[in-house]
## 1
Amino acid sequence: MDKFLTFTIVGLSTAAIYSVIASGLVLTYTTTGVFNFAHGAAGMLAAFCYWQFHFDWGWPTPVALVVVLLVLAPLFGVLLEMVIMRNLEGTSETTRLVVSISLLVAMIGLSVLIWKPDESRPMARFFQSSAPISVGPTTITWHQMVTLLTAVAVALGLWLVLTRMRVGIAMRAAVDDRNLTMLTGARPRRVQMLAWAIGTALAGIGGILIAPGLVLDASSLSLVIVSAYAAAIFGRLRSLPMTFVGAVVVGCAEGYLQGYLPQSPFLTGLRTAASVLILFVVLLVLPNPRLRGRIRSREFFPAPTWKGALGFAAAMVAGGVILATTLSRPDLITYGQVFSLGIVALSLVPLIGFAGQVSLCQLSFAGIGAVVMAHLGGGGNPLALLWAALIAGGVGALVALPALRLSGIYLALATASFAIVLDRWLFLLPRLSVFGLFEVSTFNQGSLSVDSLTIFGASFADPGRQMILMSVLFALAALLVVWVRRSAFGRILVAMKDSEAACATLGIDLFGTKLAVFALSAALAGVGGALYATQLGSISPGNFDFVTGLPVFMMTVVGGVGMVGAALFCTVSLYAVLPLYSALLPSIARYAVVLPGLAGLSLARNPGGAVQDVREGFLPLRTSPPAIGATVGIVAGLYLLRMLDVLGNWPFAVLLIVVPMAANAAVQGLSRPEKAEEPGADVPLEWRGIVRPWTEADRIELDQALGVNEVEIHGAT
Amino acid sequence: MTPGPASGTAVAAGARTVDRAAAGDGAVENLLELRSIRAGYDRIDVLFGVDLEVPRGSVVALLGPNGAGKSTLLRVAAGLHLPSSGDVVVAGRRVNGVPAADLARAGLCLIPEGRGVFPNLTVRENLRMMTHVGCGFDEVEEEAYHRFPRLRERRRQTAGTLSGGEQQMLAMARGLATRPALLLLDELSMGLAPIIVEELYALVAQIAQAGVSILVVEQFAGVVLGVADQAAIMINGRVARTGSPSELETELSGAYLGA
Amino acid sequence: MARLEVRDLTVRYGGHVAVDGVSLDAEAGRVTGLIGPNGAGKTTLFNVVSGLLPTQRGKIFLDGRDVTRMNPSRRARRGLARTFQRLELFSMLSVRDNVRVAVDSRRSWSRDPGTAADATEELMGRVGLTELADERVDALPTGQARLVELGRALATRPTVLLLDEPASGQDDQETRAFGGLLGEIAASGVAVVLVEHDVGLVMRACDHVYVLDFGRVIASGTPEEIRHDEAVLAAYLGTGVGVRT
């Protein structure tokens, strides 16, 4: 009984923290429609700031608390709203998701930048030195007391604000009917800013309360949010009272597991994964949403042509050969991931880009592929790649099976929780025998060694040969994805992304289609992971965990996830540009940790993705066969010079970039005179009538430009 | 050519102008003027160059079958929907792009179609929301309960649990209590029993007598023609006919049923 | 026997009865009109018949078979197709590929002669889209976009075709041409159900008209009968308000 009571108190105080964090999440989500994956990270930053002020600089507790919770956190929330969230109106759910995930990654990066992760930062509990209060047979610490009281105060405070203050009522009104809110004269913008300010402050309170019980570590504190998600999902991310109920369920479940879970290497992970499992289960029992109609968004991705795809594939192989023959051995190992992880990034293209289904667990599928490779690919057996595809694809279908009822943010949460269950539990399991029939094992509680591939007796242990092999496989995978997009299946995927309702009324089997694309994508990720494993030689769960996977997801979307080029953009920027940049400018290399996050944030402004911009920029070159020929010739010549050691690596690399750009500019320069001859609207307004005759259309345009009222002019003449 | 948002000063000036015009000051003849309005949703065009005027102190009825674009026109006038071309002129000021909240504070009040209430807020909280335009809560409550005693009994109930008629009363309370200069009403009668519709229109007539300019959109012509000074028939995104209510009454069935 | 039979259908959401005990029939080879004031429940009825919304009571029969519990895709495979009032086109695909998706879908459950590509071209010719085949659907004016939806719906070779305001956004000339096309489609043996606010088109094109108000059928008959029906006049004009209670 004592034990039960003790762990009830533990559970309740955990619940109290979750409820505070989750209520902030619900507040911002309902009032602004942005589900903030970075909510926990805001709490994490608050905890770090508080540690800095109070424990490092020795400010008194009240001063530090006031500065963090009443000044910094609300300001940060308002800043987020003004700089980022405001631009997200009218973007797709995927874009909004990526922006908030980018924010998460950027904030983790920021904290690593300011507070070096390897130092230990002890954080005392509140009133740690005071004796615990005894409650019957057990005791309750002052910290627990403070936590519980805070949760009650937050609940009361929120209730007061939301039902007694006009601005709080306006917040709820905006949730009901945003247009009507404006019609009453309330300013929704201001309401949203306030919601962000309060929401961020609540995250801060939660962060400061929970940090002493955990290690002050950026990513684990940021992921506390997953437990808060689980609480919030009880209220379908909308109801505050149900969120508090959810928090109690999740908190107590964790408390009792801590007290009663038998000691077993198979079950230790379960405790940390419990909240995630609860999240997963609750997501699945949520009532089935209606089929959604057309989603109108700013993004558009053209269908790839075979010519373009073959050109891309050829360029990839050429790139692989060039890298393999020019780079030093350590450099080859550094940049080797570009193509193998490129296949993992590529797996997002059919799933998100074509079908519009979000998955945050692609790197976990890659991890499964890697484990398969380690276990079955002894001696570099390439057949293990097939097994990796089959097993990862099968697991993908299994995950998809329940998750398919979900869409958008719920699907993202479900896939994220799957990834975290793998991280915290399944990837940490020891070898497991299933009824003595066969054995299942993942990482065997450590790391696994993986042999490099041997195909038909040819070994690919040498990093150079490996690089070429990977580039060929990446090119093939890209062609596969292009083929999918151009097939009947691909058209259905793209159609489904636009309107599930229309697809259903055309007799298309949505369930089967989604299942197939999930399996395909997971299989592709599995192969990518297996190849990555052969390059690493030794793999551990950390290579494939949830947080590591986020930048891959993010940068692929930033690249423009509807196109295969986005996968290359992703891995080149993450695994080539960033390391290169860090190597060149070691003094500011540490800032590299925030860059991917910042890149993701740019998506709010440019939802079409970076690859499209590049494609459009190179339109002159792409449409001129002689120029392509000339460029290829020059590059080949440069390569020859490099091979003859006439050119060093750096000049060669610079010329590789400069030559296509120069060729592009040249083609553009040559074609310009022809264009100018067309009598077009591109003549500036003030030059019309001078360089070409003045027309009626010009008069109308001038009127409009000057804002002259057309009615009046007609009246006057 | 999409007209850009008007500047902040123009908004403030507009705000003052509505009040002044309502007070009968100055030379502004029409409280609302819509000039060659074109508008649509995504790519579906709904309005094809609509001209409409609401003279100061008068009640204009806008009639027409469903899908004619009447509600869209009101949304354009209230600043909820940006027209793709044309001018929205309120009290002599062009207000294209002015946020709906600013127009509301300036004295324009739109009661939207299908109950202009917040269903998850209580009656009292709904009334509280009406104070954003600058009037006191006490006045609002008093006015609302005075006109609609039933609302007082239900003030702690959430608006979504009220009957259709009570919800519409609550919505109408905003048109009364905030004392707008220009009132836009969208399909007051939708889904309501005829007796309640009659009651509501009697109220509209009273508001009109107090000098408020009103544009009322209705599909049921019969109820509104008694209240209106002028009427217009809208069909397929265009104003097909304007005139006095009695002139138009005979033409309506043709316009609706394609005779 | 009617191709589509709706019996006593009732739909509620949030305490609001959107469709209240509606029964109607659509016969092969005929155009059946469905008109009514705003909020009368026409689009809701279509959503329920096509399976996008659940029903609380009542039954839906396609060719005599009860499809009330089937999902939208299975109903489509039994011969039901529809268009949408607010266009639901596949914006990433060209006009041709919009139709092609439906042709491919049809061929996944039925063995049709000829190639899918030919069938697509033939359908585009039928609705007059051949010239626009390679355009992005987002670039089309509304009138033509509606034709893409029509072509797409026809590609599943429906026996019952529900058209939700297919003429809105079309100019007069397009509407007239569209009326002719409707006649042709019906003549090929399809039961066409038309929701349309252009009452002129309904009166010209339909053989039988149902009038919906407050989610109920308040009148049905030939266009001529409807035009002179007291209840219809009251519903539209609000005259003699007492009549409707």
## 2
Amino acid sequence: MADTSPAPAERIAPVIAVRSATRHYGAVRAVDGVDLEVAPGELFGLIGHNGAGKSTLFKMMLGLIPATAGDIRIDGSPVTGSSFRAVRRKIGYLPENVVLYDNLTGFETLEFFARLKGVSTSECAPALERVGLAHAARRRVREYSKGMRQRLGFAQALLGKPRILFLDEPTTGLDPEAIREFYVILRGLKADGVTMILTSHILAEIQERVDRLAIMAAGKIQAVGTVQDLREQMDLPLWFRVRLAHEDFDHVRTVLGGLPVTAVEAREDHVAVECRRESKMLVMQALALLGDKVLDLHVHEPSLEDVFFGFSD
Amino acid sequence: MEFRQIATLAGKEFWDRIRNRWVLAVALVFTVFALVIAYFGGAQQGTVGFRSIEFTIASLVSLVIYLVPLIALVLGFDAIVGERERGSLDLLLSMPITRFELLLGKYLGLAAALAFSTIAGFGLVAVVLASQLNLAALFHFFGFMLSSVLLGLAFLSLAVMVSTFAADRTRASGLAIALWFFFVLVFDLLLLGALVVSGGKYGGEIFPYLLLLNPADVFRILNIFSLDDVRTLYGLATVFPRALAEPWLLGLVMAAWITAPLGIAAWRFRK
């Protein structure tokens, strides 16, 4: 299974390349020696608790915060210095809890940012349409709900047809339907070859939607890969829930005797057997020997949630 | 330099001030105060009504010295720190513009709003008084308006500088008010005190030049006219040597007061 997972860094030059990026605030290491690569057209998720360093890393990748040490390149160019303007024209950014101007209408807001980006204001109406705000174009942002502001912020990020999108907690304030619509838009962008990196602290939301993800905690990338990669890297134990026809706990113990299981426990209506991933098939074969004494068998794979908390604790 | 982006930023600041009626309010304040001073400024001497443009301008200078720096400081103190505190600064900084362009755009927009309201406010006064002014008087009044604008731009520059140093809006407003106290109220007193304490022995020669360290005093000197009976209204500024009171020279000093704080702000804001 590991063979099918993408290894983009080896063949194609990464769009986002972060090497040993570090940012100190006094003694606090907000970002601590981060290495990260995002391939062209990839939808990449960065997950971690609040304060894990995600937003700081984002701002470093955008060149908003200078790195104390390390090297960050977007599309092969440094994000600061003489190439910054060229880099900035390729990117769209949706900040965490985006704050826009209350006194402007939705349309005026986009006009303002279009001019700052140096792109045609004819892009504004289609951008509003795309995020479902066409009906509110002439209303002032003051009257917008949290979700509408988030959509407007996203529309702003799409101006200038950026090749790389940085989306910091993009679904904050959106209801489930709007979140679904948001990912539909992302799929469309992905089909157009746009590279995207987004942060979240809601795993369930992104785990089925991103190509790869990185888990960040305490300023460090704890693990990178597909969801499957991460499960394997973590090597979290599996659980078998075995329901028996009779409460023959000792018999199960005997059958499993000598096998590399890490725990066997009698629960209310089943026996729980814990083992390492590599012992999975051995344990299953042993349990099969119990024949019709087993009413039901359920394998509990560690969830991404388990992986995530395993890394960040 | 991306001039279109700078103009976009400046335009937003300017139109924000037009839309929220800031420009209108400030212009009205200037007009009303100026007319009251023009007609009732001589009340203490027992006369009511317009006397002369020299008296009117001399009285207006005193008004402007208090009012314009305050208005400019209030206008600009949160230019940067305000965006930072609201959380909108990061998005602006992620645009394909330099930090200097952002700062300059904001400054120019605020400067346009301030200059526009100053010229509109006092311009209206000139229109009202037009029948009583000859060409020379109009010229003086025009000079007064221009110097008021320069004074405003200098303090706006200081305000924008404050906005790049302060950690939050509260501290920025405190710093801005402190600057106003220092330049408008304390500075001349300190100079006078130093002169008195030293018995006038030291610093007599450099004393006039010290006045150039305060944009409010430069503004005063710019507005001194020959009429002797109004000279006392200008206080300390009258010690400035007449030979040095060249408008273009003082204009350059004002230009330095506009560019230097802005330069410091740009240096501070570079990262």
